[in-house]
Structures are given as structure tokens and as C-alpha cells.
Amino acid sequence: MTTDQETTIINQIIGGDTQAFAVLVDRYKDLVFTLAIRMLKNREEAEEVSQDTFVKVFKALPRFKGDSKLSTWVYKVAYNSCLDRIKKNKNRYNEVGIDSFTENQIKTVDNALDALEEKEQQQTIQHCLQQLASKDSFLLTLFYFEELSLEEISQIVNKEANTVKVNIHRARKRLASILKQNLEPETIQSYERERS
Amino acid sequence: MKENEAKQIEDLVAKAMQKSTLETPSYQFTDKVMAAVNAQQHSAVTRHIPLIPKYMWVAIAVLTIGFTAYIWSVVQPTPIAWPTLSFDFMKNNLLSKEVGAITFSKITGYAVMLLALMLCVQIPMLKRYFDKQKLV
Q1: Cα gap B33→A137, rounded to integer Å
Q2: Is the CB of residue A72 less than 8 Å from the CB of residue A25?
Q3: What are the chain A neighbours of B41 within 8 Å (beta carbons)?
Q4: Can you list the alpha helix ranges (DSSP code H) found in chain A?
Q5: How far apart are CA A116 and CA A111, in angstroms?
Q6: Which residues of B touch A (CB under 8 A)?
Q7: For residue range B56-67, what is the model confidence (pLDDT) as tens digits?
Q8: ipTM score for this prediction
Q9: How far is CA B95 from the centre of its chain?
Q10: Record: contact B12-A109, CB cut-off 8 A
Q11: Distant-in-sequence, close-in-space partners of A180: CB < 8 Å, separation ≥ 6
């Protein structure tokens, strides 16, 4: 459900106070932009699509019924705008296969990640997310950043909650594979050297 | 074993995602959005303003009715002597007879009807197409 404060802002905007919309833009711009960049893998395009998303939200605001969270609705518009752009560009982002892991391998990747410095860790993870398929990256961002429930995510991506659950599970595995590929061989070797 | 692996991957990804940061758009992002929104709002407003506002139509109607009533009361109407016109020449001229003699086959009739029908279908489709182009 929409919060009281958001309902007030929406009513102000519908009532003609266009400037009130800036509050909503400021509230959601970072996550909308992050979602767009994770899907489109390009800063300029992500910024364009994010702007487009907010213009669409503004235009459709009088039709927003308020039976879902405003954020859920905004992310849904962002998701569809990104899909449209991908379709328009005919971009096919790299689909990474799912590797099977042994417990040891996961632990090694985990430790190798820990061995990196804070800044390096962030860079590596950003780089890995960049390599992850658009939809996987979108799902993981919503799940971990917004901590949305499977039900809420299923509303955004227009899929069954169970399908979303399976997709998130696969996305995790793919991200782990990418992490493994990116941390190998230097980091893992150096980690193993340190350990021995 | 599988469950354990899934749990470990879950933990690893959760940890990685915690360390990733939110991206920030350019400094002027909100301003750009608001400019686009205001432009949208402005064009929407101008598009719907009629050239002659409602009150002008009311004023024109009142003036016309008032003026007619005034003329009616001042000048008493007298029957107008319309000239009597005969349109018989239309029936009797050669061209009308020639045109009247033309007969179309059934197939031609159906073809013309089909053409008219197709036009009726095409017009709304073309209208929608051009409307969409205007929006872009």
C-alpha cells in the first residue's frame, strides 16, 4: 500500500502542483537508475531510460490506484522501459552458464573476496554484476537492495512468485560463477599461497 | 549436500550484494526530469485549449438570438416573393439521359462496395498510425 505521505504528494501532483513530483524523483532516482544500469549495462542509456521512466510515471499517475506500493509500480515501469530499450537495441547480453560448485570452491571464492580491500571488493562486484544477464541483475538488485518480497517482485516482473524464486536462485548461481571466474586465477592463487 | 551448497551460494551472493553500492545518476537528473515533465504538461495544456472559449460561444449565441429578435420586432416580416425556378432542364438535357442510361454489372457494384468498406477500415488505422507518430 502507498504511504500517507506518498498519497498526499500524489494528490498534490494530480491537483496541478507539478513541482511536488521532484520529491518522488529524488526518492526513487538512485534505485531506478541502478536497476536500469544493471539491465542495460550502459550509463548513458540507463540515464535516458530512467528519465523516460519518471516521465511515464508522471503521465500515468492519475491512473495509479494505490492498491500496490508506489515503489513497486515505479520499478515495474522501469523494468518495462528497460525491456523495451533492450528489444529496440536488439541487445543480447551475455548469458552465463551455471557452474556446479563444490563446498570448497564456494568457500575459496568467499575467502578470496574477503582478501580483497574494501574498494577492490566493490569494484570486483560491480564488474561481476555488469557481466550478469540483465534480468538476473535486476532481480538480485530488487531482492537485496529493496528487500522486496517474492510477491512484490512477481508483481513487478509479471511472473508467478514461484518462478521468481527459481529465477533468483539461478541468478545467484550465475553471479557466483562470474565471481569465481573474475577472482580466478590471481586472487584465488594468492589467497591460497597466503593460506599455505 | 545440494541444500548446503545452495545455502553457501546464498550467503556468498548476499555478502557480495551488500558490498555493492547504489549507482547515482548525474547531478542534474531531477532537473532534467522536471524539465521534461513541465514540457509535457505545457504541451498537454496548449493542445487542449480550444481557439474560441466556451464563454465566447455563449456570448455569440446570445448576440445572434438577441439581434434576430430585435430585427424581428422592428421589421415586420412580409412574405417573400421567391422566384419560381424550374429544374426540368436537368431531366431533359442530353447528358442526364446519357448518364442515366449507364448500368453497372453486379460485380462492379460489389467491387465498389468492397473498396468503400476497405476505405472505412483503413481510415481509422491510418488515423491511429499518425496519432502515434505525433506522440513520438
Answers
A1: 25
A2: no
A3: 18
A4: 4-14, 21-40, 43-60, 70-89, 103-115, 118-131, 134-145, 150-157, 161-183, 186-195
A5: 9
A6: 4-6, 8-26, 29-30, 32-34, 36-38, 40-41
A7: 999 999 999 999
A8: 0.75
A9: 41
A10: yes
A11: A99, A101, A105, A109
